[in-house]
Amino acid sequence: MRIHELGHLVLYVRDLERSRRFYRDVLGWNEIRGEVPLPVPAAAFSSGRTHHELLLIEVGPAAAPMPPGHRVGLYHFGLKVGDNDDDLREVVRHLTEHGVQIQGASDHTITHSLYIADPDGHEIELYVDVMATEEWLADPSVVFAPIRPLRL
């Protein structure tokens, strides 16, 4: 067996409409419209790369929150948002305009990244690649380079 790519991500959310607005209106993801044949409210999103990359399933307001600190489970997921630091600076402006707090910013050598949280606390890395593919392919260990503060 060989994994070809990460296909999609499914997140449980408390309030589907609130999360739908965040992923569609703030992050700019295209929502896939149509009747959802699931037994619970759900919404799907795609960048156009595949049929859907994100599925949100509503679990309601009584759902337990994610526990803080170190825990087993999803830490964060990454979304490529451009090709250079100018694109990332535009993302900062856009997030600020929408009242989204940036929780962190890191220079990972191969990427420059911002960290935010969705309305339910799922951490999201918004990044641009800053190292040429042939460079990190020649030395894949660069993915473990020390993390430095990002200076945009």
UniProtKB/TrEMBL annotation:
The family database entries (InterPro entries) matched by this protein are listed as: Glyas_Bleomycin-R_OHBP_Dase, Glyas_Fos-R_dOase_dom, VOC_core
Q: Which domain of life is it from?
A: Bacteria
Q: Which Gene3D superfamilies match?
A: 2,3-Dihydroxybiphenyl 1,2-Dioxygenase, domain 1 (3.10.180.10)
Locate the transmembrane regions by residue number: none
Q: Which Pfam families match?
A: Glyoxalase
Q: Where is the signal peptide?
A: none
List, alphabetically, the PROSITE patterns matched. Answer: VOC
Ranges for domain VOC:
5-129
Among PANTHER family, the record links this protein to:
CATECHOL-2,3-DIOXYGENASE (PTHR43279)
Task: Report the protein name in the record.
Answer: VOC family protein
- Species whose genome carries this gene: Nocardioides cremeus
Upper taxonomic lineage: Bacteria, Bacillati, Actinomycetota, Actinomycetes, Propionibacteriales
